[in-house]
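Contributing new records

If you add data, match the layout below exactly. Sequence lines come first and carry their own label; structure lines follow with theirs. Keep one chain per record. Anything else will be rejected by the validation script.
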Amino acid sequence: MKIVNLLKGAAVGLACLGMALPQTSMAAGPQKAQVAAQVKIADIALSNGTLSGKVVDTQGKVLSGSVVKVSLGNKEVASTVSGQNGEFAVKNLTTGVYQVSTGQTRAAVRLWEGQAAPPSAKKHVLLVNGPVTRAQLLGGGLLSGLTTTQLLVGGAVIAGTATAIAIAANNNDSPASP
């Protein structure tokens, strides 16, 4: 009888957990997370058709001699090399959305001319050259993609189930009253 009650409590707990967690996390088979890359486009104000900026490494040290390429779509429209202090300038650009790249870094920039630039537009672009490591709260597998709320609800369901099982087991161990 004790084992039957234990199994009932476990089944109820798992059923509650199954309702609290998203169905995709419980699906059979390996899954690859499909994360839509969101590209942030920086607004940059041109100065007489010139895009200026600086190239640094991941530690913030200036990188001289870095090749900086500017592309419009798939077509490279200009390139230059960063100077001794890591600064570069690319002339004869018009307004539009460009890609600025150096080494392993690629940035999307929206170039504005003079007074047309929004107040939030920057005057220079900063390119950080090197691998950027991004931390993740949870790796791949069963728990990937879960929010903190879902994890907390799942933990509460598990704790409640464990408590109910412990109480049921304790009640079954007590002598029956007449």
